[in-house]
Amino acid sequence: MMFSFCADPKSLEGLQWLSCYLTTGTHMSFYGSFLTVLVLLAVTAPVALAFGFGGAVAGRSHVAPLRWIGKTYMAMVRGIPDIVFFLFFIVALDQGLEYLFHFVRCEDLSQPVRQAGEFRACPAAKIPPGSAPPAIHQIYNFALAVFTFAIVFGAFAANVLSGAMQAVPRAQLETAESFGMTPRQINRRILIPQMWVYALPGLSNLWMVLIKATPLLFILGIEDVVYWAQQLGAMKTQTFSYPHPDWRLWYFLGLLVFYLLLTKVSEVVLDRIMTRLRRGLPMAENGATA
Amino acid sequence: MKKLILTTAILALTGGAASAQQVVRLATEGAYPPFNFINDAGEPDGFEIELFDTLCERAEVTCEWVTTDWDGMIPNLQSGNFDGIVAGMSITPERREAIDFTASYYPAITSAYAAMDPDADFATGVVSAQVNTIQAGHIAETDATLLEYTTPDEAVAAVRNGEADAVFADSDYLKPVVDESGGEFVWVGEAIALGEGIGMGLRKSDTELKATFDEAIDSMKADGSLNELLQKWFGGEEAPQF
Predict the structure, then answer these.
(1) Is A131 close to B98, i.e. CB distance below 8 A?
(2) Per the CB < 8 Å rule, is B41 touching A26?
(3) Residue B47: closest CA among chain A residues belongs to which residue?
(4) Which of A105, A126, A158, B156 has the smallest CB count inside 10 Å?
(5) Does residue B164 share a domain with residue B81?
């Protein structure tokens, strides 16, 4: 309760009612969930980029098994619908870890873990343990979600980066070679610095898609902005302190504005980065061909 | 990210030994007043929350509430994400095939139709209900066309939006909706008793937990405190009693 006059909500009217309503515990959780989305973006983007970079480098590697891993990663994750991958991977990851721990930590291994439709890892194998505070459970679920987001968007990033690496004019690399640079030096000094210019349009597109994919958190059972908009917008009867009719339309309108703002700001920032990256690279400015 | 997972894993590995008292994680929907809902302070509240806070105390276990969506509750229980379902779940033969139930803590529920038009065709028209509920199962067996929604609130909204002729739901849930609609909603047809009462859902392998809660529920039935709680949450004199 933020204001003292909120003690008896049913006697309130107008602006007072609204100011009390908008500062309830549930609304605070709603505002907090916007932060959840931003944290998800802030953590996922660099991790996905790292995965993408790893995937792209592996995909171009001269070592065959490494190349296969890189190519399979890109093809597999990009070929499966996000939502299917999310629903499958989260369960598979969670149960896979617990399955592993089951054999490491449990004493009674006489019974199979999967039995009669149940997944029976012993209590010591549970991640997090049943006794852990709810916050740990929530962080764990969120971590699983971020990891899955990073894998999915990493595969797309890998594809963008590997395309960008190919787009760097061969003449540049050959010149470097003729100067006597080793393949490693060429990568570090010529290929990677120039690659970003070609990668940025694709990566900024990916960033926009990532922003728009954040409501997938809701499907993964995380209390994100969509969850709270649904929960708060639902019609409330007199059982609640602040009864109101179905207001989902307004809550979702709020989300719409939030996402539009987020993508608009991103566009402006990405445009600036692009201008900066292009500086001193005349080639990239007049089309990407050599 | 990997670091975070690792930290959690380490927490998981070291946390196990520390708990002296058993922690039972109870799943609820938090969208089914007056059985369970999230109150304005953001806490789980309702008949089932109050009941199980007492039951857990009597059974001497520490209970923790987990809010989760209704549709995935049984699979999540089976894969061990929590230990019990306390979400107004009626005991039915179909559900018994997958999970176990404690003794009922609420008698067989009455379900009813509500519509905006007193002459709404609930028998052969379009009827909305929450997905995977006993009510949805019932409508599927009638001549009506079933429209399923993930939350009971959306099932009600479907009637308001004209997508469904009537909504079929637990009458305890619908009562405040009809009473407070200012005549917009009316009861149609007869109320029907469905199922074998509401119990707590458990994994079939958790026989000890079932015995613990059965005993606690029986003790609350015997000393009348369960009936008192029912009266408190379900309209005094009209409340169902054991």
Answers:
(1) no
(2) yes
(3) A239
(4) A105
(5) no
| Residue B165 CA: distances (Å) to CA of A24, A53, A131, A177, B186 | 35, 55, 46, 75, 12
Same domain? For B15 and B48 the reply is yes
The confidence score (pLDDT) of residue A284 equals 47
Q: With a cut of 80, say whether residue B158 has pLDDT above it.
A: yes
Distance from CA of B142 to the nearest CA of A (A): 28
For chain A, state the CA radius of gyration: 25
Cβ contact (<8 Å) for B80 and A126? yes
| pTM of this prediction exceeds 0.95 | no
A with B: how many residue pairs have Cβ under 8 Å apart? Answer: 133
**Alpha carbon A22 to its chain's center:** 28
Residues B17 and B100 in one domain: yes
Architecture of domain A24-285: Orthogonal Bundle (1.10)
Grade residue B237 by pLDDT with cuts at 50, 70 and 90: confident
Residues B7 and B100 in one domain: yes
Task: Using CB atoms, pick whichever of B4, B151, B203 lies closest to residue A143.
Answer: B4
Instruction: Tell me the shortest Cα–Cα distance from B153 to chain A, in angstroms.
Output: 6
- By C-alpha distance, the chain A residue nearest B158 is A246
Tell me which residue in A121, A238, A248 faces B80 most closely, judged by beta carbons: A121
CATH number, domain of B42, equals 3.40.190.10
| Model confidence pLDDT, tens digit, residues B62-101 | 999 999 989 889 999 998 899 999 999 999 999 999 999 9
Same domain? B161 vs B189: yes
What's the domain range around B78? 2-106+198-238
- Burial profile A156-171: b = 16 or more Cβ within 10 angstroms, e = fewer: bbbbbbbebbebbeee
Q: Which two tokens stand for residue B120?
A: 């709404």
Stretch 143-172 of chain B: residues touching chain A, C-beta under 8 Å: 151, 153-154, 156-157, 160
Cα A65 to chain centroid distance, Å, stands at: 28
**A128:B11 CB<8 A:** yes
Phi, psi of B5 (to 5 degrees): -65, -40
**Residue burial B120-134, b: 16+ Cβ < 10 Å; e: rest:** bebeeebbbbbbbbb
B114 and B233 together in one domain: no
What ipTM goes with this model? Answer: 0.81
Asked if residue A269 lies in contact with residue A188, where contact means CB atoms within 8 angstroms, the answer is no
Residue-wise pLDDT tens digits, B5-28: 555 554 444 444 334 467 999 999
| Contact flag A118-B30 (C-beta cutoff 8 Å) | no
B180 touches chain A (CB under 8 A): yes
Is the CB of A119 less than 8 angstroms away from the CB of B18? Answer: no
Q: How many domains does chain B have?
A: 2
Is there a single domain that holds both residue B186 and residue B132? yes
Encoded tokens for B241: 């009693």
Please report the residues numbered 42 through 81 in chain B whose beta carbons come closer than 8 angstroms to any beta carbon of chain A.
42-43, 64-69, 72, 78-80
